[in-house]
Design a protein that fits this description.
Layout lengths: L5 H4 L20 H23 L8 H17 L18 E2 L8 E2 L3 H8 L5 E7 L2 E8 L2 E7 L5 E2 L3 H4 L14 E10 L6 H4 L4 H9 L6 H4 L2 E7 L7 H11 L2 H5 L2 E3 L1 H14 L6 E8 L16 E5 L4 E13 L5 E12 L2 E7 L3 H7 L6 E7 L3 E9 L28 H12 L11 H9 L14 H5 L5 H14 L5 H8 L13 H5 L3 H5 L6 H12 L1 H12 L6
Helix pairs in contact: 2-3
Amino acid sequence: MPLSLRWTAFTLFAATSSLAGAQTCPDWSPVKARSEIALHQAQIEQWDDSYHRLGVSQVADELYDQSRQRLKYLRTCFATPPERVDNPLKTAGGPVPHPIPHTGLNKLPDEVAVRSWLKGRKDVWIQPKVDGVAVTLVYDKGKLVQAISRGDGVKGQDWTRHAHQIEAIPRHIAWENTLVLQGELYWRLSDHVQAKAGSLNARSKAAGLLARNTINEDEGAQLGLFVWDWPDGPATMRERLASLRALGFEDSLRFSEPMQGFAQAKNWREHWYTHPLPFATDGVVIRQGERPPTQRWQAKAPYWIAAWKYPFARVLADVRRVNFNVGRSGKITPVLDLAPVRLDDRKISRVSVGSLKRWQKMDIRPGDQVSISLAGLTIARLDEVVTRSVDRMPLPVPHAADYHPLSCWQPTEGCEGQFRERLKWLGSKKGLALSGVGPGTWDKLIKAGVVEGLLDWMRLDAAQLRNIPGLGELSGSRLSETFQGAREQSFETWLKALGLPPTAGADLGDSWAALSARNIDDWQAEPGIGPGRARQLYAFFQDPPVQLLSRQLREQGIKGF
């Protein structure tokens, strides 16, 4: 995103933010509300300073926009106006004045806004919104005499020495008078498809290079130039583009297209998003060919130009709760309950952290805000913590050492989750394939107090099942038939249902007694079973709760036990 966009982009964001309409005001005390609002404000000010003064983006533009909207929303909730004038560019200025101010860009948040902006306008053009750093170039009698960073739009830093090392900036042009151009210095990319590769940190690379005291020609060759305006140039856009090309600025004509109506704007936006370009982009810019005289230009968003960004790749979500789910094998997976958000037409209210170790490193608590993206366009993925709540609520974090493949064979305190996962596995297609038996069925049986062990369901008859709350006459009878049918499953199927570790196709025979008599060396002698797996198999057959299950199956007349 050009440096000029961030400070105006958020002004139109509220209408269609993924946050808008999806939240209710937090149930905070006045003291907590003031603390949270101050924390959000300080975070955004830090991002602003890093982005506009140092040229380093600490947060993705779309998350920045959403964070600003979140701050505005909280201020509205708690009737807390800003304590000072909110100026994202307050630290971005420099010592060198621009001959003509750099305007900003208003952002059009959706198709409705784009249609509204286009209504009644003529001589409209569209360009890719190059994701680089904005610059003013000044030529006097054909010689490059000054290059100025965007800064705060009124004053910027002197980049003239750097410009002389950038091949894309001509040192001399065929022009007799003073000429002022405004454009974007970008990091060159080869056949870059934004929809597939994203921005690849291209803007930060360009900004980082220009932040150095000096650069050489080889480094300067990595930068390209897209001139997006000639403030005092010819009256029409077509004439300006043709003249820029004649002066040696090729990209301007190559990536500017006349358009009529919303359909063409949408087509060009999609085209540049999905087709190769020599630079990173984050949307398109729609502009009128005719502008007012430069004497009326100001360092703020004008009426004759606007940006329409690409779809969000990431969305900001509030963490409501942190759950610690224990799987059948004892692995602990933290899962975040989120205030519902939408991303690419998908509603997201939960996301996995991945592992307990990652959660401990990220230290996510209720009230934090996290970045969510889509993996493979379908699965919600946790990217990072964007802002943290003032209150770091203590959480009942399970101890990893308490859970392993042989823990929790009963739903005792702390074992409810792993026990349920064992039942789910037992009834699944990888276990006994109990038709119509899912997590809800097991929950009903556990809640009724009739299943307190992995095989207690085998003792239930049809009459007992029909009396279980939530089952009823028909469901109870069908469930009884399903449970009875499980008795006909093979010995090997029952072993897998109990949670037997993978055996790599080893011959298991048809006798529990024979398998439980094997030692580690016996297991390791089987093809495909190494030392680690051999120890797991030995431990499984020697585990007292597992041996108890085998006796229960023998009493039930299951073959092999």
